[in-house]
Amino acid sequence: MPATVSLFVPCFVDQLAPQVGVDMMRVLRRVGYNVTFPSEQTCCGQPAFNTGYWDEARPVARRFVQVFHDAELVVCPSGSCTTMVRSFYPELLAGTDVHADAVALGKRTYEFSEFLTNVAKVTDVGASFPQKVAIHDSCHALRELHVHDGPRTLLKGVRGLELVEIAHGEECCGFGGTFSVKMHDISSAMGRNKAEFIEATGASYVTAVDSSCLMQIEGVLRRRNSNVKTIHLASILAQEAK
Q1: If 45 and its partner were Cys, which of 7, 57, 62, 143 is the partner (CB 3.0–4.6 Å)?
Q2: Rounded to 5, what percent of the chain is helix, strand, coil?
């Protein structure tokens, strides 16, 4: 019997890029998984946690652990939100009655590309996307989850896709959640650098595993009147080959 995957849809995706969640579901079903969406889920608490409001983040995290308590596997189209659950919940919820559940949940919560390559053991999901695509490494996915090769392996399995690397690709795009608001000038400068490096590749699209990074990059590219478009990895992989 196929395993069942529970979708963890972050706030950014839910509010600003819902198609990413739909596309993730389509790919997971295509590679043989049953998919459910726990409708009671809300924010994972990362904005409050990252800003230092741990007391406010704690009840949100507790609720998340309770909602996904019985999930067999949890998959999320975001490196940063996956990091929140896997890496930061154990510290945030230390000393509480849900700490053990939080640790266990973190061990079965995966970023989307990580799940496909490391758990589902697939590299070709039957996608076609005949475009030149640059790839941006999101900070949490790269540094906390060590997600680097997986997205590239999946993209190389997409028919017609030409994958190109961005110079200084491991540098931050400048978003960083509230960092982009509190440190606007620095964030904007980092975004401009990233946009220049992306444009230099000659790519038609830039992809990443985090919609928040893509929002930052898209905003900068739009202000530059750039022809480069942004697209989440899940939305590329959802483009089924004819």
Answers
A1: 57
A2: 50, 15, 35
